Amino acid sequence: MSQTKTGHCMCSCVSFVARNVPETFGACHCDMCKRWSGNVFNGVPVPSEDLQLSGEGHIKRIQTSDWAERAICAECGSPLWYRITAEGPTTGTTNLALGLFDDTSDMTLGYEFYVDRKTSANDLPKDRKQFTEAETLALFAPEDASHDQGDKQ
């Protein structure tokens, strides 16, 4: 079942409303996505005509290959999307960065690209130390700082 979802970049200069959002997202392990996003790029494919953007003046588009562009927020540097620009069956598909969405609790990983380029950084062992939001804030955030927990890290 597809749905309508909202989201924004880290500084909120760019925001969106997306219709017909699938319940699954994809992960790309290609070298370019790793460099662009800092690791694996998790993207949610949305037809461009189902995407309403706000803050267009803050979007920097970069043609990164013969078939696609990537976009970032020019203010905060958040990766925004990977969009297919070459003619074909997926032309205009915008893969929005999963981290932009306000709520992903009902979404699951459905597929991966470039799995032969996947690194061990994406294999999280079960015996690792895990910190909750409160524990993380107690470690790093100043006690007198006012902040919106979860959004200002």
Show the helix and strand layout.
Blueprint: E1 3-8, E2 15-21, E3 24-28, H1 31-37, E4 41-47, E5 51-54, E6 59-63, E7 68-73, E8 79-84, E9 93-97, E10 108-113, H2 133-140
Parallel strand pairs: 3-10
Antiparallel strand pairs: 1-2, 2-5, 3-4, 4-9, 6-7, 7-8, 8-9
Family: Belongs to the Gfa family.
Organism: Phaeobacter gallaeciensis
GO molecular function: carbon-sulfur lyase activity; metal ion binding
Could you provide a short overview of the structure?
The chain is mainly beta and 153 residues long. 10% of the residues lie in helices and 37% in strands. It has helices at 31-37, 133-140; strands at 3-8, 15-21, 24-28, 41-47, 51-54, 59-63, 68-73, 79-84, 93-97, 108-113.
What features would you describe in this structure?
The protein is mostly beta strands. It has a single domain (3-119), classed as Metal Binding Protein, Guanine Nucleotide Exchange Factor, Chain A (Beta Complex), CATH 2.170.150. The chain has 2 helices and 10 strands. It has helices at residues 31-37, 133-140; strands spanning 3-8, 15-21, 24-28, 41-47, 51-54, 59-63, 68-73, 79-84, 93-97, 108-113. The strands form 2 sheets. A 7-stranded mixed β-sheet has the order 6-7-8-9-4-3-10. A 3-stranded antiparallel β-sheet has the order 1-2-5, with no helix packed on it. A hairpin with a 4-residue loop joins strand 6 and strand 7 (68-73). The protein is globular. The two termini are 32 Å apart. 22% of the residues are buried.
Q: Per CATH, which architecture?
A: Beta Complex
Strand content: 35-45%
Under the CATH scheme, which class?
A: Mainly Beta
SSE string, helices as H and strands as E? EEEHEEEEEEEH
Give the mean pLDDT. Answer: 91
Which structural class do you get from the secondary structure elements? Answer: mainly beta
- Report the helical percentage: under 10%
Radius of gyration: 17 Å
Number of domains: 1
Span between N and C termini? 32 Å
